[in-house]
């Protein structure tokens, strides 16, 4: 009699291997994260695992990002590796007047193999115009709106997003009011090496990330280094969340810049977890990028990074300090208006600062790491409150930055509530480029460098 081994016989073996290769690293990584906590957090929301309910060849995890002034990069995943990397689009539903072919990538992480990750750069596109598009020649239709090429323009700003019930409620509040571009200063999926959670995250955010460009930079949860086997990290992040680094003269997906509202706003995405010292490629790129800005035509400069340089929460104290020491003079010398960070799971807004002192020509610093991740909130603050800290609160929420014109922007922070969100902090900011005092007195050492 023939002895046959149905697939289920293999299950115990694969399960054992899976336990070893997924969960052992996971436990080690969790242990590393747990040991950095010396503070109590509010109960986090339950993790939402978003299932795949389309066919293997249909696009999933569709998201878009700006790629140069009049192009958009469309990214999606198919389980079918034969699916084509094409995007068809047009300005009316179902009428695709243009088809563009792009390319694809994929990666493996222990026993996990990603689907086919497609990247297609489409354009030229008209500003403030709605486009209807389809990925891979089949499947559902999506649409997005190109940002306007003039003021006003509005950003939604969300850090440390994760994929919990809180994430869902934050995203719902973001969607409840229109905006043009989504900015994320790091910590996206909290997959932490469990690769299927990257797919789940992609599916959770698709309804929002396929409609407006998502511009992100990396946080510590994107690193996913495993000693010897994956020593460089960012495997999943770089494959899935490709940003316009080549378009901005950067050699790394971990830092880049782009312009919005024509060239009215220059946004710089820095990498807290790649080298930033004065001899690093990132530092030299930043120097060069800042030197190219003409503040007469570009009144606003905004920076995003993950680990905050200023922080009065007891969580993650000092983690952004060496980067601050390396790069603060460059940013302040270039009269950067605003610096967003995440990492600390709470909201905090500072006054204008340079080198730990209030300085009317320095950037305003905002920590917005309260998108909804599974680790919960960072509840404890240093006392007494620093006079540099204008507002601080450990609640989940998101921010909105509305740039009205060359001189004025309005920033607001929206705390999540049961069914709606509530504006808990807001402030008007004036561009430093409009201040003759600040533009006239840059430190002389910086003039030489820039
Ligand atoms: C995709 O195309 C871009 C630009 O043409 C290129 O830089 C990139 O290396 C390509 N990626 C892959 C995976 O072939
Ligand atoms: C997440 O939000 C969407 C849309 O707001 C909703 O349809 C879905 O049921 C929510 N999921 C959970 C688990 O709350
Ligand atoms: C810019 O917007 C602000 C706020 O609405 C307004 O007070 C100011 O007059 C505007 N400036 C210009 C030049 O339009
Ligand atoms: C939600 O909104 C209500 C009514 O505005 C308010 O009383 C309550 O404190 C809010 N809850 C949170 C968590 O902000
Ligand atoms: Fe973080």
Automatic annotation (TrEMBL):
The gene is LOC115742353. Residues 59-145 form the Purple acid phosphatase N-terminal domain. It is an enzyme of class 3 (hydrolase). Its cofactor is Fe cation; Zn(2+). Its EC number is 3.1.3.2. One of its GO terms (molecular function) is acid phosphatase activity. Keywords: Glycoprotein, Hydrolase, Iron, Signal, Zinc. PANTHER family: ACID PHOSPHATASE RELATED, PURPLE ACID PHOSPHATASE 22. The lineage of its organism: Eukaryota, Viridiplantae, Streptophyta, Embryophyta, Tracheophyta. The keyword DNA repair does not apply. It catalyses: a phosphate monoester + H2O = an alcohol + phosphate. This is Purple acid phosphatase. The keyword DNA damage does not apply. InterPro entries: Calcineurin-like_PHP, Metallo-depent_PP-like, MPP_PAP, PAPs-like, PAPs_C, PAPs_N, Purple_acid_Pase-like_N. Belongs to the metallophosphoesterase superfamily. Purple acid phosphatase family. It comes from Rhodamnia argentea. Residues 362-425 form the Purple acid phosphatase C-terminal domain. Residues 155-347 form the Calcineurin-like phosphoesterase domain. Gene3D superfamilies: 3.60.21.10, Purple acid phosphatase-like, N-terminal.
């Amino acid at each position: 009699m023939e002895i046959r081994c149905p697939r289920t016989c293999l299950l115990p073996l694969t399960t054992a291997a899976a336990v070893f290769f997924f969960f052992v690293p996971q436990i080690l990584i969790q242990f590393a994260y747990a040991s950095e906590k010396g503070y109590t957090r509010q109960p986090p929301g339950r993790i939402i695992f978003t299932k795949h309910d389309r066919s293997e060849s249909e696009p999933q995890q569709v998201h878009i990002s700006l790629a140069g002034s009049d192009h958009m990069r469309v990214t999606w995943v198919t389980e079918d590796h034969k699916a084509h990397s094409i995007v068809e689009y047009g300005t009316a539903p179902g009428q695709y007047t243009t088809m563009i072919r792009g390319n694809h990538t994929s990666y493996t992480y222990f026993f996990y193999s990603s689907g086919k990750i497609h990247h297609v750069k489409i354009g030229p596109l008209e500003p403030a115009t709605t486009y209807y598009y389809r990925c891979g020649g089949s499947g559902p239709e999506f649409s997005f709106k190109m940002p306007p090429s003039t003021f006003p323009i509005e950003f939604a700003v969300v850090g440390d997003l994760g994929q919990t019930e809180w994430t869902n409620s934050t995203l719902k509040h973001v969607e409840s009011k229109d905006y043009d571009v989504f900015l994320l200063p790091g910590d996206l999926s909290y997959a932490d090496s469990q690769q299927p959670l990257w797919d789940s995250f992609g599916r959770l955010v698709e309804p929002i990330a396929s409609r407006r460009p998502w511009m992100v930079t990396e946080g510590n949860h994107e690193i996913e280094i495993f000693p010897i086997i994956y020593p460089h990290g960012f495997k999943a992040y770089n494959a899935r969340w490709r940003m316009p680094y080549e378009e901005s003269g950067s050699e790394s997906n971990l830092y880049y810049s782009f312009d919005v509202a024509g060239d009215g706003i220059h946004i710089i995405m820095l990498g807290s977890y790649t080298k930033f010292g004065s001899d690093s490629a990132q530092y030299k790129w930043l120097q060069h990028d800042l030197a190219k800005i003409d503040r007469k035509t570009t009144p606003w400069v905004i920076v995003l990074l993950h680990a905050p340089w200023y922080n009065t929460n007891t969580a993650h104290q000092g983690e952004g300090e060496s980067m601050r020491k390396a790069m603060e003079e460059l940013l302040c010398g270039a009269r950067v208006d605003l610096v967003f960070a995440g990492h600390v799971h709470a909201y905090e807004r500072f006054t204008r600062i340079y080198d730990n002192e209030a300085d009317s020509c320095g950037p305003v610093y905002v920590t917005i790491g309260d998108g909804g991740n599974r680790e919960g909130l960072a509840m404890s603050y240093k006392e007494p409150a620093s006079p540099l800290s204008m507002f601080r609160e450990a609640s989940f929420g998101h921010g909105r930055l509305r740039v009205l014109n060359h001189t004025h922007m309005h920033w607001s922070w929206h705390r999540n509530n049961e069914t709606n969100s509530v504006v808990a902090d807001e402030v008007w900011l004036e561009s430093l480029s409009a201040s003759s005092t600040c533009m006239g007195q840059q430190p002389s050492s910086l003039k030489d460098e820039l």
